[in-house]
Every structure is written in C-alpha cells, then in structure tokens.
Here is the input.
Amino acid sequence: MFKSYIAAGVAAAAVLGAAGSALAGRDLDAVKSRGQLICGTNTGVAGFALQDSQGKWVGLDVDVCRAVAAALFGDPEKVKYVPLTAQQRFTALQSGEVDVLARVTTYTLTRDTALGLDFTAVNYYDGQGFMVSKKLGVKSAKELNGATVCVQPGTTTELNLADYFRANKMSFKPVVIEKLEEVRAAFFAGRCDVYTTDASGLYSTRAANAPNPDDYVVLPEIISKEPLAPAVRHGDNQFADVVRWTQYAMLEAEEYGITSKNVDEMLKSENPTIKRILGVTPGMGKALGVDEKWAYNIVKQVGNYGESFERNVGMGSPLKIDRGLNKLWTQGGLQYGMPIR
Here is the structure.
C-alpha cells in the first residue's frame, strides 16, 4: 500500500512537472531575449496612457508596463508602446504583436475564457458613467430618454449602454465611432447629447479635451462594474505571474510605507515582510524567475501604487479623481496586495 502511494506521488509529480514546463517560460523567455517589453496601450487617454509634449508615454496604465520592465530588466524604459483602439486590442495580443495589454480593459468572463487571455491583477476599479453639456440642464441619467449617445464599438460600454436604457424603459440613438479622438470630437461638436464610457475616461476627457471643462458635467449614476486589468495570452503562467505580482508589489509597498523616496532607507528595516519585499531576504525573485531586487527596482524607479495613482489621475494630477474604490483595503477600498512571502 505504502509503495503504491509513493508510485502515485511520483506519477503525479511527473504530470505536474510536464504541465509546469508547458505553461512556463515561452512568452517570458521571448521578452527576456528581446531585452524589451512590448506593451499594447491606449491611443490616448489622459491620466492612463498619453504621450506628453516630449513624446514620452505617461499614465497609470503606462506605469504598469514600466513596472513590469523594472521587474524584468531593472530598467523601466525598456518598453515599446503600441497604441491600440478598442477593436484592435485583443487581436494584437492574441497574434503576439504585443506581450501585454495595459489599456483600460475591463476584466470579464468571456474575455478571460473565449479570447484565450489571462487577466492579471486589477489596477483600477472603475464604472461606466455619462457626461453631458450643462446646457442640457440634465441632472440624472434617468432624464436621457431619446438622447443621442456617442459610444465606441466593440466595448463593454456599448453593451452596458443598451442594457441600461432597456432596463429603464428609455430609448436612445447611438452614434458609434471607433477612434477615441473622433468620439470626443463628435461629442464636443454637438453631434450627440451624451458621451458614455468608464467614469475615469469621462474625467480624463473633460480635463484634457473639453474646450471649457466647466461647461460639462459627469452625471451621478454609475451603471456597471468595470474592473480594469492588464491582460496576457494564455499559455505562459510564469509571465502572467510576473505581471500580476508587479501590481501586488506596488500595493504591498504602499501598505508598508515603502516609497520611491525612502526605499533605500527601508533596506535597513527589520520588518520581515519589508525585507522579503525588497529582496533583503532572498527567495521571492527566484520564485518569479526575476532578480531578487525586482520589487526594489519597481518602487525605486516607478513608485508604489499610491504614488502612481496620485501622479497620474489623483489629486496631484489635472484629473483630480478621488481614490474611492482604489484606496487600499486598510482604508476602505478594494485594492489588496497578496502577501509576498
């Protein structure tokens, strides 16, 4: 009996080993050998992914890619950015044109399964809203019966819009435009009464694109859950782990008070958790297949999650979005870094 248990255990280990090798390394090895991460990002959303006046990509989603590059190469600049529309994004990832998709993409069941993708950790909890001109005198989305609505095709936004109006027994006329900049232009030119997308995108558009931001209002209703997360292809669990734990490292760093300013001082901490996070106590980097200083490099060169949030979309940015659901769990929010141990 005892021998049969041993034999079964050896057989199971062999199967797991074979499965592990099949699910590890392919994409990660390609990225490492290339020496550069190829990141699919937005065509331009202020606060999330946008080229600044010097042509440098900046934003919360951009910081995801910079942080992954810091974890892999010790250098957040080793990233090539590929701007993608909503309709291009999944094909680009599936075909291998990009290594990771980090561009305000909602994590849903069908996308996670039928498209052959793996979503990693949520980097922004969002929800769909509506923006209108103050001239309309509208105070609530429930007053939008018969409105024309600008929306992008191939998005959860388009589906949620139809569901919301149907559920509230209202009608609307969609103005469907693929390119983000053209949707915005159409709205501000008065081709539609309403612009709908994730609330973060509405605040971004109002701050960065409105002729006069004070002339527009984001209505109070949030009609959906929109957990935005980076995505990678099925088939390389090891690469998915690196992307996932990059986000967790930024969250854990914030929770334990580790910032880009004090990270060198924190290397002297006696806190066992901080020592593991920063690689003073080795093992975490080896488990991920990266350098033991992976999390140190992320925080030193990109910052913790709170720093990235405030710089790009928070009160330190033109968008001035409240942390809300994106506060740490210790502050009543949903952001929760898994233990690095």
